[in-house]
Specification:
This protein is of the alpha/beta class. It has two domains: 193 residues, 3-Layer(aba) Sandwich (Rossmann fold), CATH 3.40.50.150; 95 residues, DNA Methylase, subunit A, domain 2 (DNA Methylase, Chain A, domain 2, Alpha-Beta Complex). The chain is 32% helix and 14% strand. The protein contains eleven helices and eleven strands. The strands form two sheets. An eight-stranded mixed β-sheet has the order 3-2-1-4-5-7-6-8, with helices on both faces. A three-stranded mixed β-sheet has the order 9-10-11, with no helix packed on it. Strand 4, helix 4 and strand 5 form a beta-alpha-beta unit. The N and C termini lie close together (11 Å). Bound molecules: S-adenosylmethionine (SAM). The site of S-adenosylmethionine (SAM) has 23 residues, from helix 1 and strand 2. One of its GO terms (molecular function) is methyltransferase activity. Its EC number is 2.1.1.204. It holds the Pfam family DNA_methylase.
Amino acid sequence: MDYRVLELFSGIGGMHYAFKYAQLSGEVVAAMDVNTVANAVYAHNYGATSVKTRNIQSLAEKEITKLNANMLLMSPPCQPHTRQGLQRDVEDKRSCALSHLCLLIPQCDTLEYVLMENVKGFEVSQARQQFIEALNKAAFHWRELILTPTQFNVPNTRHRYYCIARRGKDFDFDGEKIWEHMPGTKPDPDQQSMCKISTILESDVPDDFLVPDDVLSKRVLVMDIIHPSQCRSMCFTKGYTHYTEGTGSVFTPLSEAESHRIFEAVKQIDMDPNSKDSEEAQQRRLELLRQVKLRYFTPREVARLMSFPEEFEFPTETTNRQKYRLLGNSINVCVVGELLKLLTT
Ligand SMILES: C[S@@+](CC[C@H](N)C(=O)[O-])C[C@H]1O[C@@H](n2cnc3c(N)ncnc32)[C@H](O)[C@@H]1O
């Protein structure tokens, strides 16, 4: 079968890479997003003709039919549903595009396959309810899953909600529950075959990526620090490097034992009641912390943790801040690629 993919909320094209990963025949017939910075990255990798700067709220059934799109891949904005957000759900204007699509889907006879990604939490939203109703109305069979790249030996945690849906043949796994691992695989609590973080590192990373002194002094204790022999990292979000807490891990080239020794010495200083007001003690503390050589993961390393292929590039004009924002908003290519295989077999 030749798939004709409509990629909506396309960002930097994570879904397009997932489609390639799954080695399905066919092409992405159109990609659409309102973000011109993301679209420039998309065009840099796939050519300008494939991506349109477009508000999805204005998409019409006729256009989808004219494109003869039979597969819809999308990761709509997650802010209405994130735990950190206000969870205004369908009341949030960023939900409008998805609500609009829920009206369109039952009208689009060409569509046979749908894959949607969203944040964990979406499964209990009203938006999810709307979406499932649209799929039912259009006679799709559907399944829901919450998966993370660590289940695919990628050393990055990113729990995300996925819904896969198709017309015609039903799935041969239970539809009464939300799957928390890939159907047909066993959950592997030991994760023996997980890649080490050292396998995704760039060599000769410039000092620009070192965690600055002020962040080191004030925020080091809330950082999630990863050593080369570890097999994990936390979810990278769009605020990475800008906000410290909960936006992604940082890296030290030191072994766990070496950095533990340094943090013990820092702890000793912190336990001394006079150290807080002593400039000399604070300077000693900072010098100790500098020895940990903490740095941010580079955009290339974050892209690798999101399973983007090496051929993926940013245009030279994209700033690091923009790269982190775009990657933080994107998807894990391997997880979606595996789901596409599941969807199409
Ligand atoms: C979660 S991100 C999707 C990222 C994408 N899958 C990727 O791989 O980079 C959501 C995207 O939806 C876009 N977006 C939000 N509202 C939109 C709308 N009404 N029309 C078009 N794009 C929209 C944002 O600009 C953002 O790029």
